[in-house]
Prior knowledge:
Blueprint: E1 13-17, H1 24-34, E2 38-40, E3 44-45, E4 60-61, H2 64-72, E5 76-82, E6 86-91, H3 92-100, E7 104-108, H4 111-120, E8 125-130, H5 134-144, H6 149-163, E9 171-174, H7 178-193, H8 200-211
Parallel strand pairs: 1-7, 1-8, 2-7, 3-4, 8-9
Antiparallel strand pairs: 3-6, 5-6
Amino acid sequence: MEKNVQEVKKGLLIIISGPAGVGKGVVCKGLIERNSNIKMSVSATTRQKRPREVEGISYFFKTPEEFSRMIESGEFLEYMYVFDSNYYGTPKAYVEEELESGTDIILEIDVNGAMRVKQIYPDAISIFIAPPDLGTLKSRLIGRGTETPEALERRFGAALSEISRIGEYDYIVINDVVDKAVGKIESILSAERSSVKRNKPLIDKLQKGCNQQ
């Protein structure tokens, strides 16, 4: 019996970005809880493994030499040096393997990383999580109670810079109520799965059938 082409669809690569305090983590958690086929990407890092962290689940732990070799070999979708101490990157091979298995993968990354991924993987779906307004965002940042006034101002300045680049994304989702934001992303993913560009094998099969009539 001929296998239904819809059963072999590739997973979606989902880029989630947004300023600090907008609730990206909570939205991603909600997506994963409601959709068993969606999971977070696993990053590679040069930082030391912490207690209870698991290789291949928490991170792929690499030595600086291993990470440098991977950079030279073009093995990352994106990578960055964080806090002048450690490298973090998204391994291409891991992401591609998960997508081929039909799993949707979330990359929660900053604007620069998102644009690098889009250059390498144009089919990635880029979604910017935005606050309902700047006042709400500032209140959320203050509400954390974890940073000095100077650090808060830097965070807010960075947020304004990120928001200025929303036009580079495919979609914008306002995170006012988390469940609604998650629902909007689910609608985006559903529409993308039905897009013509992602269903070429099915379309070719249908058109071949028409030609045989």
